[in-house]
Specification:
Elements (H helix, E strand, L loop, with lengths): L2 H11 L12 E4 L8 E5 L4 H9 L4 E4 L16 H11 L3 E4 L2 H5 L4 H9 L2 E8 L5 E9 L3 H9 L14 E9 L16 E13 L3 H11 L7 E6 L7 E13 H11 L6 E3 L5 E11 L4 H5 L5 E5 L3 H9 L3 E4 L2 H5 L2 H15 L5 E4 L11
Helix pairs in contact: 1-12, 2-3, 6-7
Length: 370
């Protein structure tokens, strides 16, 4: 099994197109071609986690939070990020992150958190917006079809699940009249012409669209390539940021806060809003959920359960008669690490491979409450 095979397993668990535009999920460091016999999983790509992975003989570290979040202008090996990169490079350790795509995925962080706290009848709080994939249709002369298929295979286009070079084509007849100054592949200037063409279509990720079209134009024989681009509606069932679920049995806000503290085995939780607020519907967002206050206020939920909430978030919620429960960033996400391990083990076993998968179990909330 290679790093690229593990990346495919992670893509099934957390499809890359679900990542937010500002995110940097995916392979952070290493070669997709390297062999993998031992995988380590942690929440953070910390110096401690990387050292533990190296000491365990790991070939690949999978984390939730990305190692490289913003473009690097330099790699200072005295900095935490630089030290991780240096250690990974010295020990041939691949580092991979599944971040907001794992948050949004069906069965991802938010669903695991909802299961842990006992919510029922789940729906997505903030479905993914806008197309992440496009269908590109190119009209090609029959005698050039094979070359254009090769061009698709040389580009990021045509990838569906575990398959690449995916295209569909159908024959047809195109008409055109070359104008003055034209340099037609076929036909005569000023005369209506017909050509036997093939309609070739493929799928392209949003991030690759501009580069793929430029690549196809460079390999197309026509002076002006005729093509169409169609946005594909995303599959939103069970996918997107946050969840809404039914609280059973119905309880008051203060009771719910204490129940979450016990269920998640936390040293603390904090909440805002009337302690006697009746709650039968809750919104959940793993990690930092303050950015989803708008969708929360527009939802039927009486409380938002998340981490990293600010003072003014609490003020806004109270003024709207809603409640907030802050369970902390770490507690809302670390629960997914064991789930990632279990799913990778299942996928590796199904593939007939022998790969060890281990959890870095010495992580802790960086905040100490006194």
């Amino acid at each position: 099994m290679k790093v690229s095979d593990v990346i495919k397993i992670m893509a099934d668990m957390a499809p890359p197109h679900l990542a937010e535009d500002w995110d940097n999920s995916g392979l952070q460091f290493g070669s997709p071609a390297r062999e993998v016999k031992n995988i380590f999983v942690s929440l953070e790509p910390s110096v401690e986690a990387v050292n533990a992975a190296v000491n365990a003989g790991a070939d690949m570290l999978i984390t939730h939070h990305p190692l490289i979040f913003k473009p690097l202008s330099a790699i200072d090996t005295d900095s935490p990020t630089g030290a991780v990169i240096e250690t990974a490079a010295r020990n041939h350790l691949a580092v991979f992150a599944a971040h907001t795509n794992l948050d949004s995925a069906a069965g991802g962080v938010n669903d695991v958190l909802c299961e842990k706290i006992g919510l029922r009848d789940l729906s997505v709080l903030c479905p993914g917006s806008g197309p992440r994939q496009y269908k590109v249709v190119v009209f090609v002369p029959e005698d050039h079809t094979a070359k254009m298929i090769d061009a698709v295979c040389q580009s990021p286009a045509g990838r569906i699940g575990n398959y690449s070079c995916c295209t569909f084509r159908s024959p047809g007849t195109g008409t055109f009249m070359p104008g003055p100054g034209a340099d037609p592949y076929d036909g005569v200037i000023g005369e209506l012409s017909e050509a036997s063409e093939v309609r070739m279509e493929t799928v392209v990720e949003k991030a690759d669209l501009e580069a793929v079209i430029a690549h196809l134009k460079a390999h197309h024989p026509y002076e002006t390539m005729a093509y169409d681009v169609y946005p594909l509606e995303p599959e939103t069932t069970g996918q997107g940021l946050g969840r809404i679920g039914r609280v059973t049995p119905q309880m008051r806000l203060g009771e719910l806060a204490r129940d979450l503290k016990n269920r998640l085995e936390l040293p603390w939780v904090r909440f805002s809003g009337p302690a006697d607020l009746s709650v039968d519907c809750a919104a959940v967002c793993s990690g930092s959920g303050g950015g989803l206050l708008g969708p929360f206020f527009a939802s039927p939920a009486q409380v938002l359960i998340t981490g990293d909430l600010r003072y003014h978030d609490a003020v806004d919620a109270v003024q709207k008669g809603r409640g907030l429960i802050d369970i902390g960033h770490f507690a809302s996400e670390h629960i997914v690490v064991d789930v990632i391990c279990s799913r990778i083990r299942d996928a590796v076993h199904a593939a007939g491979e022998s790969v060890d998968v281990n959890v870095f179990d010495r992580e802790a909330d960086p905040f100490v409450h006194v």
